[in-house]
Design a protein that fits this description.
This protein is an alpha+beta fold and 330 residues long. It has helices at 2-10, 14-25, 30-36, 43-82, 101-115, 129-132, 164-173, 215-230, 282-288, 302-310, 323-327, and strands at residues 119-120, 126-127, 158-159, 178-187, 198-209, 235-242, 245-254, 271-280, 293-301. It folds into two domains: 2-82, no CATH class; 101-329, BirA Bifunctional Protein, domain 2, CATH 3.30.930.10. It contains eleven helices and nine strands. Helix 1 (2-10) packs parallel to helix 4, helix 2 (14-25) runs antiparallel to helix 4 (43-82) and helix 5 packs across helix 10. The two termini are 77 Å apart. The structure holds phenylalanine. Residues 162, 164, 203, 242, 245, 276-278, 297-299 line the site of phenylalanine (PHE).
Length: 330
């Protein structure tokens, strides 16, 4: 009896304990063998013998259960230890991207016009002379073509110099009324602090039956748009020239850096030019076969807006892909 207890207590693991259980308590185990002797015992001694055996069984079971509990606890502790997670350890830092300031500015502009029910149109970057110039009232020898410093391709095609050809393409495939913007990349042979050979514009065009849309609508929407972009600035419409609009106007806002006092950014004028716009020239409608309509159009440079909003002094830095610049816009 005592040596069985000792054996149980000396077990080192659950597997050994299980073998021992079979050996002692099993059907063919030691206790079963003892109980089998009961039938050969004289009936007057039977009761005492059985009681003795039962006490032995109870005592051994107690020792066994206690040992099992201890071993299970140890096993659990071992498992927990091996699966332990140290939440105070440093993890791997993941680098999070952010939107490029030009993209973010573009999205902000698009949001404004989409909210006013403008459709968003697009066209090819490689254009032909007709859609980029001719249909926009820039005939072959028109001096205003010079303004655009075009990249020509070998086959007479060209990289579009503005998003205005999307006006033409949209009007050629759709009937009036038109209420669209066209965001996208454009290309010009230009490279300095405020010009890169590729930049982005957002074009706008609204066309309806003659008399429905007017210059007053253009003024109202662009004034509101510029307040949305820049806050409470002053907005000024200045007569200008574009071949595809008549009258044409450039739109200025009061300088957001000096509030109109005059500084380096506004060349000491107190004003920043931000938009080109005007009432669509009848020659443009004629080129696309529209009759009895009137409309207005505008175009803006997204990079210029981004530079002003984020106070970026050199536009070229926007396209160098330097992560240190981008990180400032998170
Ligand atoms: N296409 C002109 C430019 O690139 C901008 C503009 C668009 C002006 C529409 C008037 C109307 O400068």
């Amino acid at each position: 009896m005592e040596d069985l207890k000792g054996k149980i207590e000396a077990t080192a693991n659950l597997d050994d304990l299980e073998s021992l259980r079979v050996e002692i308590f099993g059907k063919k185990g030691l206790l079963a063998a003892e109980f089998a002797k009961l039938k050969d015992i004289a009936s007057e001694n039977k009761k005492e013998f059985a009681k003795g055996l039962n006490d032995k069984k109870i005592a051994l079971t107690e020792v066994f259960e206690e040992k099992k509990r201890v071993l299970l606890e140890m096993a659990l502790e071992k498992k927990l230890e091996s699966e332990r997670v140290d939440v105070s350890l440093y993890g791997y830092e993941s680098t999070k991207g952010s939107l490029h300031p030009v993209k973010e500015t573009m999205d902000k502009i698009i949001d404004y016009f989409v909210a006013l029910n403008f459709s968003v149109e697009s066209g090819p970057l490689i254009e032909n002379d007709f859609t980029n110039f001719e249909a926009l009232n820039l005939p072959k020898n028109h001096p205003a073509r010079e303004m655009q410093d075009t990249f020509f391709l070998a086959d007479g095609q060209l990289l579009r110099t503005h998003t205005s050809p999307v006006q033409i393409r949209t009007m050629m495939k759709e009937k009036p009324p038109i209420r669209m913007i066209a965001p996208g990349a454009v290309f010009r042979r230009d490279y300095d602090l405020t010009h890169t050979p590729m930049f982005h514009q957002v074009e706008g065009l609204v066309v309806d039956k003659t008399g429905v849309v007017s210059f007053a609508n253009l003024k109202a929407i662009l004034t509101d748009f510029l307040h949305y972009m820049f806050g409470e600035v002053e907005v000024r419409f200045r007569p200008s020239f574009f071949p595809f609009t008549e009258p044409s106007t450039e739109v200025d806002i009061s300088c957001i850096f000096c509030e109109g006092e005059g500084c380096r950014v506004c060349s000491h004028t107190g004003w920043l030019e931000v938009l080109g716009s005007g009432v669509v020239d009848p020659n443009v409608f004629e080129a696309v076969g529209y009759e009895d309509v009137s409309g207005y159009a505008f175009g803006l440079g997204v990079e210029r807006f981004a530079m002003l909003l984020h106070r970026v002094p050199d536009l070229r830095s926007m396209f160098e892909g330097d992560i240190r610049l981008l990180e400032q816009f998170r």
